[in-house]
Predict the 3D structure of the following.
Amino acid sequence: MIKILLDAFGGDNAPKAVIDGAVAALKKDKDLKLILTGKKEVIEKELANYEYDRERIEIIDLPDVIAMDDIATEAVKRRQSSLMGAYWKLKTEDDVDAFVTAGSTGATIAGGQLILGRIRGVKRAALCPAIPNVRGGVTLLCDCGANAECKPVMLCQFALLASAYAKVGFGISNPRVGLLNNGTEEHKGDALRLETFKYLSKMKGINFVGNVEGRDIMLGDCDVVVADGFSGNVALKSMEGCGKLALGLLKEEIKGSKRAKIGYVFMKKALKNLYKRIDFDRYGGALLLGLKKVVIKSHGSSKAVAIANSIEQAAAICRGGLVSRVEKSLAEENWEEIIDGDGQ
Amino acid sequence: MIKILLDAFGGDNAPKAVIDGAVAALKKDKDLKLILTGKKEVIEKELANYEYDRERIEIIDLPDVIAMDDIATEAVKRRQSSLMGAYWKLKTEDDVDAFVTAGSTGATIAGGQLILGRIRGVKRAALCPAIPNVRGGVTLLCDCGANAECKPVMLCQFALLASAYAKVGFGISNPRVGLLNNGTEEHKGDALRLETFKYLSKMKGINFVGNVEGRDIMLGDCDVVVADGFSGNVALKSMEGCGKLALGLLKEEIKGSKRAKIGYVFMKKALKNLYKRIDFDRYGGALLLGLKKVVIKSHGSSKAVAIANSIEQAAAICRGGLVSRVEKSLAEENWEEIIDGDGQ
């Protein structure tokens, strides 16, 4: 039985969408228990609208709610909040496996680093979303926002962490790792990229395929793209913006013409498929990689489906044994041989 | 009469697409002269297929061709190449106004900085493409690849240069400038962003609206987005990749279903409009901002339409008096008051 904590008050559509997603996830996975955190009374009232297995939902009353724009380092102190309270439960109870939240990204990262803590040897936790690619699979982008400033050793660890995630979460046996750069040639990039390229080439535990560009995240032949949190975030949000623009304009064009409206009737299914294929939430949320337990940050605007996907994803990662695999990979790499003093 | 140099051997589809585009541009703009550089014999043979005003095309025989992967700093020395030969002509002849090339980006930047030279006071030239946005206009992204590593003063200058370009090239009277960051809050970003934010807030010659995210380039309410060349490049290519993916998947979905194919017949025009609206080449190439004359880098894969658009864009920028406007803006800003020692 997998036991997952769920922040019932995280995200723009909480608690309704979260609870809706929770019930859906329980229906799909009979070997799953959920612990909902938040205002108990409100959660119970909302749950009364559903049919569900009462044995497999527990509620912890944590009445404080962290807002999206609360300062993360302050928010960490609020033990009675649905987010930080969940982190304390996750930290202290051995039989709780994972935590899913659609709450503030900054607060989720801060709680992960400061309350739950990192796997021994991991320098920094990284935010790693799975992005749909042209091959019908996913590309993992790591880091995409947890660390605006990075050292080479951090990028090397991201490569290792995300490779483990690709194996465990998506069954990719020998994930190809690319370094996000402003060109594919070996000499491209700033000092951070040049140094990191050198180190990644020496690592035994990853399958490094060289530099990749922004377009390769969705188009290219790699499974993991390594980036500092600043440029990774820029890449992620640029893709999201472009995808939204393309779909929004398509809607506008269809609405604007009678002929196109007729065409839409015939094309409805094809367009639905398209939407599904470029839906960033299809594979759940972003994994907060490098922590002692599995933490998934679902999109702030998550609806029930996205929440259910994130829960399903968290369960799959727990069952795959991500944390122990990361520990093993870290131990097997000879860091001192790979990275000299400057890269640390 | 505007006189523009055109690298007839730059880009994947040269010389055919370039010459095709040149003839189209001449037909559209009667007050334009073109100087084509490259293998004279080949150009003449290709031109023989067209009807055009012979008075308004000149050819300079420069038989050497710089390849896309030639090292830029080496390429600069090749004075007999269609690219560098054009730069020498641009530098030495007062009545030549601009240069358009679809050749190697690295070589184009190197030639611009080392042969043509920068406007007095400009620290670095920047590559600035116009990206279609949801408002039906453009957002200028500056820098997007010329400078992988930037200091705050460079980003501040990019804001000023691109604002001048927005006014002259696109008639935007008071362009809103955003700083590309990993969040919109003032405290977001790395040291470079934090310091630049402080300086941009103090500048008189720009309309700074604060931090913006990757998605705001296509969706947001700003006209100029300032970035270091590394993250700007990541943003640009991520958007290109996503756009291509969306359109490619749409094609696939239409091909894969009979119903969708019928729908396509009715939706053809709407889809064509959509393609046009997210076509990155529609507004010509990327302007190499900060140089003594107007230089446009058209996409390496430019077809005739993109070349013609780049020529039209170059002519419009020359007529708008970009260079003198940049000189004026630079002189009016009190740099010493804005930027302290560290930012230089």
